[in-house]
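Archive record
______________

***
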Amino acid sequence: MTPSGMASAPLRAWPYWITLTFVPLVMLAVLAGGWTIWLIPVYGWVLMPLLDTVLGKNLSNPDPDTPDEDLLWFRLLTWVWLPVEIVLVYGTLWALTHAVDRTPAETLGIMFGIGVTTGTVGIVYAHELFHKTNRFERNLGDLLMALVLYGHFRTEHNLVHHPWVGTPRDTVTARYNESFYRAFARALFTGFGSAWRAEKAMLARRGQGPWTLRNPIFKYLALQALFLALAWLVAGWIGVGLFVFQAFIAVWQLELTNYVEHYGLTRRHLGEGKYEPVRAHHSWDSAHRVSGLLLINLQRHADHHLHPLRRFPLLQVYDEDTVPMLPTGYPPMTFLAMIPPVWRRMFNPKVRAWRRRYYPDIEDWSDYKTLSTPMPRAAG
């Protein structure tokens, strides 16, 4: 399946480096405090959607077969973010406890901004990196996820979400009419166990038990413990608390995005625990230009699910006859997701229209609404 009717696009890396503009905003918030603290969330949640409105969509597609050697500046952007994030997080913790005098409210506001940054940029970059086949990039992704205390997400995303999206096995496919808060609680309290079961099943296929250092869950936990210990060394127990707070804000944003990406979209059950393959229409897509730069094309989500190893600058946008489209980019959609009545009023009709379009023969949606169809066979 390939996008149709889309113009080709030249590859330019420099616009994606817009994400580094979060760095001076964090520095300004730490040094000046006060109203400057609000610049970080306003930048990501207000300015970017406004620019999306003005600059519109990017409907062009690059050559998906572009070799890696032509993508160095795109890849370098995801590589350099780890040291940048480490300096931002721990430099801020040190400054708030040793160098600047901020009120408790200002301190929490600054760390909220840090969480916005580690969630909006760090987790999105980690997602790009841990989908790659080389160990260097996967390790960078693991380190970025450890900085938000959510290391198991790599396993949960790669071994559960991608193969089982739109089925009962996937913890982050939002059910029809389900509020974000219920979906968030499910992801938060069942995600680690789901990742453990997935790794346990994979190791069993290799004739090994789960209590082995080959199980990456132990690597995730060790890295998280290391970063927590570093927070304590830099800023004491207050630093540990602030570190956990920014991690929570980052994970909140991650799960908001997960909620939006697949809300109400389910795969057809073929009987006996078998499901249809993942199709382009099992993801909500967006082609908005500026938020696409900020989120390194994460919004081209249908193509990502069809080609999970494809690097972000090569992801394709599909026409509206092929995929369900969001009315805006992700930032406004994640905001609306936090207001369940507004979200349901907007999206439940869209889900029902999606059903009529792609599955006109299914008359009873009761089990699909709650994803209480049978668990997929061999799902781990």
Notes: The radius of gyration is 21 Å. The first strand starts at residue 269 and ends at 271. The longest helix spans residues 216-262. The CA atoms of residues 184 and 337 lie 11 Å apart.
